Each structure stands twice: as C-alpha cells, then as structure tokens.
Amino acid sequence: MPHAPRSASQPELAALFATVQQHFQAVIVPLWQGPGWNADMALPYEALDAEHQPLPPQRYRAMACARQLYLFSSLIGQVPGAQERAAALFRSLQQHFHDAEHGGWFYSIDAQGAPLDQRKDLYTHAFILFACAHYWDKVREPLVESVLNAVLEVLAKRFATSDGLYEASLQRDWSSLNSGPLQNPLMHLAEAFLATLSAREDAAVHNALLALCAAMQKRFIDPQHGVLMEKPLGAVDNWFEPGHQFEWFFLLESSSLLRGSLLHASLTRAFGFTEQLGVDQSSGAVRAMLTLDGHSKDATQRIWAQAEYLRALTLRPDADSAVLRQLRALQQHSLHSRGWFECRDENGEVSRQDMPSTTPYHLATCYRGLADYLR
C-alpha cells in the first residue's frame, strides 16, 4: 500500500527500529540457537527462564516447532546457520509429530518424545501450513511442498465444515469433539492461507480464504461495534481480545485480496473502539480480554499483543508518530538486555519471568511489518 509522505519522526523511527532489530538478532535469536535448543531431540525447549536455562520439559508442541520453523525460515540469508536450523525443525516436525496411522499432526509429545496429547487441532495445523509455506518459499524443495500439500488436504477433508468455517479440534482418528469453530485458530488459518498464496498461485486456497472471511463476518462480528468475538455470536460468556483485533486488521489491510471485504470494513470500523477500550494510551499496553461493555476479563499485558498493535499501526493513515510511540513502548516495557518480558500484570508489574519459544514468531512478523513500512 502507498504510504503518506514521511513526517519529522521518520529518522528517529528508523534509528529506533535499527536498535530493536539488532537486539532481536544479537540477543533473542541466539537464545534459540543455543540454550533454547535441545540438540538430542532437535526441538526447541518450550521456554527459558530469566537466566537462559530451559524450564524442565514437560512436553514439546508441534505448534512451537512450526513457529520456530517460520522464525528461522524468515532469517535465511540474514543469520548464519538459519537455513540449517530450519531444515532440522522441518525434519523434527515430521519425525516427532506426524501421525503415520491417521494422518495429520499430533498436538504434543512428552519429554521423551512419545505422543502425549494426540488430538488434532486446527491451531497446530494452521501453523504447520504457515511455516511450510514460508520455508518452501525460501528453499523450493519438493519434500517441503509435499508436506504443504498434505496439510492443505487435511484441512479441507477433515477440519472444514459446510459453511466456510473449520472445527477447532478433533480426536486423533478425526472423530468429532463437537468443538465447533473458534476465532483464534481461524485467524491463524487465514494467515497461513495468505502465506501459501504469497508463495504460489492456488485457486483452492484463494477460494477457501474468501469463504472463511465471509463466514467470519457472518458468525463472529458483533454487529454494533464491528469487533470479532472469540466464540461465535450467541455463545455463552463471549469476549473479544484487542490483540486479535489488531492481528486480523493487519492481515486484512495488508492483503490486496481481502482489503475491501466486508470483514475488512468491520475491523477497520472497530479499530478506534478497540484502541479506546483495549489500549492504555500512557503506556501503550494492550489489555488481554474484554467484554463489549469494556469490562476486563483479563488485564494481563502480553508482549505479543503489544507487537500486534504496533504492526497494525504501520497500516493506519498518518501513522509515523503513533508507530514511533508504540515501538518505544515495546522497547521500554517488553524488551531488556537479556531477552524480553512475556507478561506484565494490570499494574504493569512483570508477572512472568520465562521466555517461551513461541514468542519470537510475533516479534519477527511485527518487525517484518515495520521494515515494510520504513521501506
């Protein structure tokens, strides 16, 4: 999208982004090349503590493996060893998590590598598609594309429902858990479809994405405010998450295919309402979970939501000063010399000292959006 002429804050923004990106490549990425990497399993540990020691492993999730596959795929050509690490993660995804009997991928394995939670969930499969699309785009290896095609087949045959939506979770053998659709996995599926379409032309994916967005508009958008609810309209105890609003806005606004859709119009209309209820304007902190009347269900301030708000701001009109303010907030409140703070509580106090292996994905996609903005 064309951007407005640059403002006086542009040089300061570029300098701050260079500092933050240097922190990412010099501090955060090496955590997952060194102490965060279990070389025996060829998998990332789930999390590191503040001293960079792995938390005792209880499980390894396919989704975490896939997010790290995306991370190192995105760094091929920029960070030494990134391509080798991506290749190892791709092999591990197949070796540890693929279900040879029923197809698809397990949710998790235990610390010894045996299947743990053997259900098939949409969130996991969306991230496997997302990661494989990015990895294949970089390496163009036939085996990677064959896995990408296998995930697409599972999504269409097993998860898809007749209305353009997808079941959130199924048993190992694909029998029903009556989960119904949920917002978050559907958002990551839309993200994965967009990644696939950026890597190749695919009419089936193109049509599935349009059908998904039309169904989201119909089943999840609150008609009064335009926000996307976390559960379908009419569900008991429903809520919305500002971080997810901003994440959806970015996906829709950045896509020439989806920009101008009814869903895009709803999220654009809801942006100000989401900021008003969901963002602390003094600190830039994004609240976790809200009801439509502004009641907080969870006031935790998570780094991923900060990053998604920042990324969304890059696609708003006349955004330079807002982007600079939010990047400064991310740096000051969430990043530190040895890594990052995952969560602060509603009073702004650090409430989690550990650093999960899944978070660098959010920072990588945020910084990619910033780099595109500054370009």
From TrEMBL:
Coiled coil: none annotated. Its EC number is 5.1.3.11. InterPro entries: 6-hairpin_glycosidase_sf, 6hp_glycosidase-like_sf, AGE/CE. One of its GO terms (molecular function) is cellobiose epimerase activity. Gene3D superfamilies: 1.50.10.10. GO terms for biological process: carbohydrate metabolic process. Belongs to the N-acylglucosamine 2-epimerase family. This is Cellobiose 2-epimerase. PANTHER family: N-ACYLGLUCOSAMINE-2-EPIMERASE. The keyword Phosphoprotein does not apply. It comes from Pseudomonas fluorescens. Keywords: Isomerase. The keyword ATP-binding does not apply. It comes from the Bacteria.
